[in-house]
Design a protein that fits this description.
The chain is built from ten helices and no strands. It is mainly alpha-helical. α2 crosses α7.
Length: about 240
Amino acid sequence: MSDPAGKVANMTASADGAQGTEGTERAKGSKGSQGPDDRKPRRRMNYGEGREALLNAAVRVVARGGLRKLTYRAVAQEAGTTHGLVVHHFGSRDALIEEALAHAIRTSLSTSALEPGTGRVADFSVGVSDMVTADPDIQAFQYELLLEARRRPELLPQIRALYDDYFDATKRELSRMLPDDAGRPLTRLVFAALDGLVLHQLVFGEPETTDAAIEELRGLLRLIEADGDDDPENDG
């Protein structure tokens, strides 16, 4: 499996553009012009708290405005802290993107309900709709980067790492539930169904529709489970 926090290559052009944006913002700041966000109260944070807050702020900025809106100053304003603290923690826009994506992976996998570990069909993907309702920005952030990777192939290694983790978690749980180990096509099919439901809930809301569709998916998995149990090759 590839490292989710691996280095993004060939992003110099976008970084230069971000630096230009930052330079413009600094110039505006030196002239004393401030927008409403510049007047947000700033607070001091310790190292660990500050890093986590900045990563969460980066996720929110991208989720709401796309990757083009991700600047040091936008993240600082969202977090209610200083522009310099973002530079101190990450050093470059590329590093901020990498670490925000790694943070999204850790957060999503811990709350995804893809792998309850019980091997019971009834437990599979319980709570997916609640996960989307509780933190839609972390999901929207991933879809924003997924679409951005079509325009910027240098992001693909990190997106592949994210989805490889999802596929692996789905495969492990399916293999616990089903008589035979889940193959790659079935794993992709099941995860694609879940991924589409999450996207639809982000756009349309209706968590009850997500829950009903996932229950239908569990019904299909029960049929596969029963079919495997009835296979003559499984008879002793």
